[in-house]
Specification:
7 strands, 21% strand, alpha+beta, Umud Fragment, subunit A, seven-stranded antiparallel β-sheet
Length: 191
């Protein structure tokens, strides 16, 4: 009889050890999955923010193209990075950004047909337009020259800078942080 009890206890210990080991393995797997998904989510938010923040630190202004006047060269929804330069440095065929009027603050992206340095104005035209713009662009309405444009990125990132977009980005960062914290607790519980 004594031998049978020892065998049963040994079986129970073995089963209990297996269960503990299975739980540890499940915790390790869950922790790894949470780390991966949390890291991916955090990386996605950072990747969305980089095109909007780093260029600004380098002195560029960023605008989204919302009309088709510069297509096909710069499609609607593109993100344009604008460098401040002296108006006199702008050359024919450069793409510039300027205020439509100083009162409304609307921003236009068009190509320079002619830079009239003496009179302090540009003659501009949208690539998709058949004629030059009706009124010359005075130098005081000039914002800068387009250095780079990324097609369609403006349409995507334009959503991020809205209030709902910022709330979603904040929630994504919070969710990623909670996943990474939960992964750490699962690892601690398993050791």
């Amino acid at each position: 009889m004594l031998k049978g009890k020892k065998i049963n206890r040994a079986k129970k210990n073995t089963e209990e050890n297996r269960r503990k080991e299975n739980t540890k393995n499940r915790n390790r797997a869950a922790a790894a999955a949470l780390d991966v998904f949390g890291g991916i989510l955090l990386a996605a938010v950072l990747l969305c923010c980089i095109p909007l923040t780093l260029p600004r630190l380098a002195g560029y202004e960023i605008y989204e193209v919302i009309s088709g006047s510069m297509e096909p060269a710069i499609p609607t929804g593109s993100l344009v990075y604008v460098e401040r330069t002296e108006p006199a440095e702008v050359e024919e065929d450069d793409v510039i950004v300027f205020y439509s009027t100083m009162e409304t603050g609307g921003v236009i992206t068009h190509r320079v047909v002619q830079n009239q340095v003496v009179s302090g104005q540009f003659i501009t035209k949208g690539d998709a337009n058949e004629q030059e713009d009706l009124a010359p662009v005075e130098y005081d309405r000039y914002i800068g020259r387009v250095r780079v444009h990324i097609p369609y990125l403006g349409a995507v990132l334009g959503r991020v800078v809205t209030v709902p977009g910022r709330i979603a980005a904040g929630c994504a960062v919070l969710a990623a942080a909670l996943m990474i914290l939960a992964a750490g607790r699962l690892r601690s519980a398993g050791s």
